[in-house]
Design brief:
- Helices cover 0% and strands 53% of the residues.
- The protein contains no helices and eleven strands.
- Strands 2, 4, 5, 6, 9, 10 and 11 form a seven-stranded mixed beta sheet that branches.
- Strand 4 and strand 5 form a beta hairpin.
- It is globular.
Amino acid sequence: QVQLVESGGGLVQPGGSLKLSCAASRSIFSINAMGWYRQAPGKQRELVATITTGGSTNYADSVKGRFTISGDNAKKMVYLQMDSLKPEDTAVYYCNANTLWGRAYWGKGTLVTVSS
């Protein structure tokens, strides 16, 4: 059963924008935070941004001022608005959800390619 589904990836030119969306399944209960991670070829997965159900956000230094995370608790959705994209932002972006019980869920990922 697919529990986190990402969408919105694609090819964009440097300086462009993309918006990623992630929908959590109704079967995931007591989510207390959701977020985005990314993994570039040959590199480890890294945190991009997280948001709690209370609205607190956290960003990687590399995306501060360019990316904005937001969420809709009622719909169990999280979004990532990515502006001023750079080639080094190219990666597979994964959605993550954490519950109050300490369980983590991951999506299958969506590819973002920044290239001219």
